[in-house]
Amino acid sequence: MKKALFYLQALMLYLIALLPFPLLYLLSNFLYVILYYVAHYRQDVVRGNLANAFPEKTDEERLLIEKNFFKYLSDQMLETAKMLTLSKKSIKKRFRMNNPEVLQDYFDQQKSVLAVTGHYANWEWGSLIVTATYNSPTLIVYKPLSDKSFEVFMNRIRSKFGAVMVPMKGTLRKFIEMKQQTFCGVLVGDQTPVESETQYFTEFLNQKTAVFLGVEKIAKLTGYPVIFCHMNRIKRGYYENTFIHLTDHPKDTADYELTDLHTKTLEEIIRRKPELWLWSHKRWKFQPKEIQEKPSFAG
């Protein structure tokens, strides 16, 4: 029964992916009404997150962000399905790389790079455009799903242009395996760690926030330069990416400096256009507790 349901869902996604973009966005308008006005999908989570993140804004200002977020969420959900049929030509037309030379310069120097981003704008399309732009391999680190069939399905879509999908706990091992090649390792920096494994809190969107230290740990162990992928929506169905330099020498940074830096970079981006971040995610699941032992980044 579960397998039959999965195949039915996959078929529905494929049928959506066959729609031309004008029809896709008409469907998205309808989906927005269903999500927001009928199902009230995670509205309490979104409102709580916005209230905590932007206490300086009025109720009317936060309500506008909320509605714009749900409109964008509807677009993003259907655009993710559209990945099934997106060609390289189409993704290059719809996703502009503003400074592709930043990453290419590292590859030309035979240097691998760590690229960190967040759940902002269309990060799923972002993985496709990076893979479609460069000859060097793209390694995309992901958090495994409880539904393994859907995980396999999504990873096939994400890797359609040749990306290598790497489960989070196997990141360092895979990077070491690839050390003889130049590659771009893409990590999402705003995931929520498990409470029992949390080792560090930083200030993010007006709140103490538990953060993964994976970017900093890997950067300090490998010495790979770190850049931030700032994805932005230009208009409906069209995006751009700008690489932001964070550090060429991560081993010279102080402990937690790099973690704070990429988190602060994401916050500044969110504050400029907040409706493009994933507010429906339960990002603040627990409060800081006394941490007895912090990790060392020496090496």
Approximate helicity band: 40-55%
Q: Which descriptor suits the 3D outline?
A: globular
**Arithmetic mean of pLDDT:** 94
Q: From the alpha-carbon coordinates, what is the Rg to the nearest angstrom? A: 19 Å
Query: What is the topology, as strand order, of the major beta sheet?
Result: 1-9-8-2-5-3-4
Alpha carbon gap, first and last residue: 51 Å
The biggest beta sheet reads:
7 strands, mixed
Task: Give the SSE order as H and E letters.
Answer: HHHHHEHEHEHEHEEEHEEH
GO cellular component, one term: plasma membrane
Protein name: Lauroyl acyltransferase
Pfam family, one: Lip_A_acyltrans
Keywords: Acyltransferase, Cell inner membrane, Cell membrane, Membrane, Transferase, Transmembrane, Transmembrane helix
Give an overview in words.
This protein is globular. Helix 1 packs across helix 4 (59-82) and helix 3 crosses helix 4. The protein starts with a helix and ends in a 27-residue tail after the last helix. 46% of the residues lie in helices and 17% in strands. It has helices spanning 2-17, 21-38, 43-53, 59-82, 88-94, 101-108, 123-133, 148-158, 171-177, 214-222, 257-272; strands at 95-97, 113-117, 138-142, 164-167, 184-188, 201-204, 207-210, 226-235, 238-247. The protein is α/β, with parallel strands linked by helices. It has a 7-stranded mixed β-sheet, with helices on both faces. Strands 6-7 form a two-stranded antiparallel ribbon. The protein has 2 domains: 1-85, no CATH class; 88-277, no CATH class. It is built from 11 helices and 9 strands. A hairpin with a 2-residue loop joins strand 6 (201-204) and strand 7. The mean pLDDT is 94.
